[in-house]
Design goal:
The structure is a homodimer. The first copy, chain A, contains eleven helices and ten strands. In chain A, strands 2-6-4-5 form a four-stranded antiparallel β-sheet. At the A-B interface, strand 5, helix 4, helix 6 and helix 11 of A face strand 5, helix 4, helix 6 and helix 11 of B. Chain A binds a DNA duplex (30 and 30 nucleotides) through helix 9.
Chain lengths: ~240, ~240
DNA sequence: ACGGTTTTGTGTGTTACCGCACATATAAAT
DNA sequence: ATTTATATGTGCGGTAACACACAAAACCGT
């Protein structure tokens, strides 16, 4: 019986890994591993949520879809968080779509189980609330960034947030997909990526973007990235950022 | 001893008014009435929060202030909500400034008392969580709106959100202040307000904006307003919108 | 009634991004 | 190897919002 596989998997999620051993042991049996492909939809706007997902290697993007089909990203969630938090907040659905931005694994938990555990009020509850607070900061900063910054700056922020939640330096992602996330034209991303390429910060080749100069990317980004990263560190108690020195 | 004054005051906040009588009675003594002038700052970005505020007639705007001084609004909170929710979420501060957008009253509660009551896990907790979820929708929609919609549409959304939280049809607010909220130029607001004026939706005269045709304003707005309003109704169980049949 | 302040109105030139059209390059399919 | 699909590059006209500079009101205190 491969219990340890399940366990190790779940522990790749920082939120779960930070739980006291006893508490983790209690809820461990509620987890079920799941695997996702790029572009897969976890749930649509308005869907009743049956599960919450704790990503271990996958990255999920929360997208709002307008009536005319235009999209804009609200937030990015990786192995530092949980998708479907509105469940314990009392809503059973959200107004956004959750889509896999980077293929990988997660563990999921039944909505009912989550609500039970949350109601117990221990470290698990504290952690979920703190993460929600961090997510709110990310969403807020997305709003600000959308208002005040250039596409190039926003691309930097987006790449950094994604890079933080990824093992590799290479993102499997087309300009077109990124343009959906940032809510701009595909050509705008191509242009911005070219500029960043000329500055030797990234390398963009057909369907992949590789981060070359992480430090330089941070400097090219607006303050929004640093604010979000700072709050994640403050609230969740450790850096998932790869910032050096 | 004017206990009833205090009581009635607090009950003008829908969140508190919706509490079961017993629960309200228990926490009633923790409330302290406060009065605010336009432009007053409840707290700055990074400040440690000593109180949470339940507006009764005041309206509060959550503003993000950039390093260069530019500002953008994240959300609007009136008598349908609570300011300082990050307290029970586990952060003791936020990255935004809370500023009085419309003068009026509120009741406040000590941070410590709030945390205690929240931990009890009753209707009060449920309500705080549900409101937080509604607020997240508002913030998300602000992000989307900032990305995809014109200043005129955004002005409509903003006016509607403010109007919903106000007794009067007249907002005491200069174009300059609104421009700070929406993160655009003052001239942009003047132009947009003129257009809405020509359509007979509002009347804008030196420091005040009066809503003339509420229904028309809703039609001129992007879908963002309706989405936010819908979620508030769904999650908080009653409409604060003034939408007619 | 007066001068000072605040608020709003208007014009000019600039810029970032959009929408569209299409050329080119890279990968996958047969 | 050739076709087909997908991804990226590039150019051009259009537009919404910008920055800056003032003019014209509306209100305020004395």
């Amino acid at each position: 019986m491969p219990v340890s596989a399940n366990t190790n998997n779940a522990l790749r999620n920082y939120l779960l890994a930070a739980l006291p051993a006893g508490e983790f042991a209690r809820i461990e049996s509620k987890f079920e591993p799941v695997s996702f492909k790029l572009g897969e939809v976890l749930y649509e706007s308005g869907d009743k949520l049956d599960y919450v997902y704790f990503p271990t290697t996958a990255i999920i993007s929360m997208l709002y879809v307008m009536e005319n089909g235009a999209t804009a990203e609200i937030g990015i969630i990786g192995n530092d968080g949980v998708v479907g938090g509105s469940l314990f907040m009392g809503g059973d659905s959200t107004t956004s779509r959750a889509i896999i931005q980077s293929a990988g694994e997660a563990v999921r938990m039944k909505a009912k189980d989550l609500k039970c555990e949350f109601a117990l009020g221990g470290a698990f509850q504290t952690m979920l609330l703190r993460f929600t607070q961090a997510l709110m900061t990310q969403i807020s900063q997305t709003a600000v960034c959308n208002r005040l910054h250039t596409v190039e700056q926003q691309l930097c922020r987006w790449l950094l947030l994604s890079h933080d939640r990824l093992d590799s330096d290479t993102l499997v992602m087309t300009h077109d997909l990124i343009s959906n996330m940032l809510g701009v034209r595909r050509e705008g991303i191509t242009l911005a990526a070219q500029k960043l390429g000329k500055k030797k910060l990234i390398k963009s080749v057909r369907g992949t973007i590789t981060v070359i100069d992480r430090r330089g990317l941070e400097e090219a980004a607006c303050e929004c990235y640093a604010v979000v990263n700072g709050e994640y560190n403050r609230l969740l108690g450790r850096g998932i950022s790869r910032t050096f020195g």
